[in-house]
Amino acid sequence: MRIAMIGTGYVGLVSGVCFSDFGHDVICVDKNADKIAQLERGEIPIYEPGLDQLLARNVEAGRLSFTTDLAQAVAGADAVFIAVGTPTRRGDGHADLTYVFAAAEEIAAALTGYAVVVTKSTVPVGTNAQVKQIVAKANPAAAFDVASNPEFLREGAAIDDFMRPDRVVVGVETERAAEVMAEIYRPLFLRDFPIVTTDLASAEMIKYAANAFLATKITFINEIAALCEKVSADVKEVSKGIGLDGRIGNKFLHAGPGYGGSCFPKDTSALARIGQEHAVPQNIVETVIRVNDGVKHRMIGKLKDLCDDSFNGKTVAVLGVTFKPNTDDMRDAPALTIVPALVGGGATVRVVDPQGRREGEALLPGVEWVDDPYAAAAGADLVVILTEWNEFRALDLGRLRQSMRTARMADLRNIYAREDVLGAGFADYVAIGR
C-alpha cells in the first residue's frame, strides 16, 4: 500500500515509521522544512525509545521518505492519514480542529484517484463527517472515502503499542474503505490482534471514552491515597488488592502527583465539552478534571509541610519533570504546577531530568538544570521525586543524604520504602497514600 502521513508530530511520525515497517511505502509530510530536513538526516525531533533505529532501517529499505510537498505525497496514495495536532482550544475546552480541516482541504486538491482519507488525530464525534464534507466541497470530482483510526500509543512504549496493540479501531462507512484499512493492518490481522471495525461516530467516541476511563482510574486511586494517609493504610497494598480483581485490573492504579501528558488533559476536557453541548453532562469526567487539578496542588502542600511551612530560602532538588518516564513530553506535567510554586515561594530549585531539559528550559524559568542527582542534592533541604525515571530508582541514599543540608525526601511516585530512606539517615520522608 502507498500511504501519505500528514503531520510528523508524535502520532504521525511513530505511525508513519511503523507502517513502513509493515512493508508499506510511506511518505511523511510536514510544513516545517527544518523538521523534514532533520528527519532526512535521520535525526528524531522527539524522544521515543527505538524510533531512531526503526526509522533508519526503513529509510535504507526505501519504504520511508519525508517531504514538505503534500501534493506529491497524496498523489496516487491508497490512504492519506491526517495526524496533525488537536490542542485544547483556548476559552472553551474544545479540541481545536483548525489543523485537521486545513489538512482536509489541501488533501482534496491533491487527490488524483480513489483514496481513503483517514483521521488519526484525536477528534470529537462528528469530525470525520465534517472532513468528508470539506473534501467533497473542495473537490467535487474526488473519489474517496473517510475513515476514523484513533491511536492508542503510550509515550515511551509507542512502538510496542503499535506493533502489538490491544486492539486496532477502524471506523468506516463503506466496504471499500474497510478493505483498504484491512490491507493496511494486514500484518496485525495475520497475527490475530483484534481489529474493531465500526462506524465513524463510534470509533471517535471509543478514543475519548478510553482515555477518560484511564484518567478516572488514576484520579480514583489518588483520592483513595489521600484517604489512606488519614487512616494509616498503604495505598500500594490497596492498589495491589483491588488490581488483582479481574474486573478492575492493576494498570493505572499507581498513586502519584496527578496525570498529565498529551492525551488525558485535553481529551477529558473535550469529552466534558461534548457532553455539555449535547445536554448530557459527563459528571464523572468533569469531577476527574477538577480532582486531578486538586491533586497537583495537594502535592505543593506536602512539600511546604516538609519545608517548615515555607519555601523561602530553601534549596530543593527536583528529580524528573516530564509527565512520565521515557519521554521528553512536558505537556500538562505535574511539574508545571509544582515547580513554579517552589520558585514562586522563594526556593532555589535544581532540576534533573534525562530528557526534559529541551522543553523544560522554556517552561520552567528560574530553575537550575544539572545532570546529576547528587549534584542537585548538594546543600539541598529537600529532594523531590516527580518522575520515576529508572535513573532515580536505585540512588545511593546514603550518598544523597550526606551532601544535603537538611535531609528530607518527598517521594511522589512511591518508588522507595520509608524504612530504607530513614535507615539511610534522612530526617524525614513522605510519600503518597502511605
Topology (SSEs and partners):
Blueprint: E1 2-6, H1 10-21, E2 25-29, H2 33-40, H3 51-60, E3 64-67, H4 70-74, E4 79-82, H5 98-110, E5 115-119, H6 127-138, E6 144-148, H7 158-163, E7 168-172, H8 175-184, H9 186-190, E8 195-198, H10 200-231, H11 235-243, H12 264-277, H13 283-306, E9 315-319, H14 335-344, E10 348-352, H15 357-363, E11 368-369, H16 373-377, E12 382-385, H17 397-402, E13 408-411, H18 418-423, E14 428-430
Helix pairs in contact: 1-3, 5-6, 10-12, 10-13, 12-13, 13-14
Summarize the structure.
Helix content is 45%, strand content 14%. It has helices spanning 10-21, 33-40, 51-60, 70-74, 98-110, 127-138, 158-163, 175-184, 186-190, 200-231, 235-243, 264-277, 283-306, 335-344, 357-363, 373-377, 397-402, 418-423; strands at 2-6, 25-29, 64-67, 79-82, 115-119, 144-148, 168-172, 195-198, 315-319, 348-352, 368-369, 382-385, 408-411, 428-430.
